[in-house]
Amino acid sequence: MELKTSPSPSKPLILNNLPDMPLPDGGCPRRTKTQIDFMLLAIEALQLGGAEVMLKVVKDLELQEIIPNRVSLWRLRSTNPLRQNSQRRPLTLNEAKALVIIAGHLAKRLTVPIRKLLFDYQQLSQKQLPIESHLQLSFYLEQFRVHFRSRMNSRRSGVMAYNSDEKLNQLGLELLGKLLFCTGTTGIQRFWVSLFDGEVI
User: Fold this and answer.
1) Which string of DSSP letters, residue by residue, matches the chain?
2) How many CB atoms lie within 10 A of CB 110?
3) Structural domain boundaries of the chain?
4) What angle do CA 62, 107, 176 make, to 5 degrees?
């Protein structure tokens, strides 16, 4: 009698949209994990109920095999070594792909407000007006600062680099630019590759 073995689960097809990166230890570099989490942090500052929205996207994109619930999403994001409760576990390429695809998907949904915030910031800079004079931009940056300070470990040197409102504002604006970049043609693929610049052998 021939025994039938169940096929091993295949990875979600959407992950094929991003190329595999040949990392020596099978896990993602420190900078990659940090940048992905920062991108998702910016999305949370833009979108109220960000974590719930991300879980909805996980379901829509059929990524439950990699991120089955809220706890697993938190664990993946906590591989960022700058977090207060950083998880000492590797972030696999497929896990990183899933997080980047989620970020890219949400960035495309938020293209209009992201583009407007960056345009308005440019206008404020040209007129030498304070960010506080723009309600939406000021709100986004305040939310970003709150999220960053509540979740990152202030004793880490990488966090100490952002020890003022001005430096955190600059980081928040840079992340807006990266999110907008992801909304362009092949933007998410180019962003994905950029996360491994200088890290791949």
Assistant:
1) -PPPPPPPPPPPGGGGGS-----TTSB--HHHHHHHHHHHHHHHHHSTTHHHHHHHHHHHTT-TTT--SHHHHHHHHTTSTTBTT---S--BHHHHHHHHHHHHHHHHHTHHHHHHHHHHHHHHHHTT--GGGSHHHHHHHHHHHHHHHHHB-TTSHHHHTT-SHHHHHHHHHHHHHHHHHHTSTTHHHHHHHHTTTTT--
2) 18
3) 26-194
4) 145
Which one, of 60, 182, 29, 194, lies nearest residue 114 by Cα? 182
Residue 37 CA to residue 175 CA, distance in Å, equals 11
Q: Is 89 in contact with 82 (CB distance < 8 Å)? A: no
Length of the chain: 201
pTM as predicted? 0.90
Closest CA to 141 of 110, 112, 163, 170: 170
Residue ranges of the chain with per-residue pLDDT less than 70: 1-10, 24, 26, 198-201
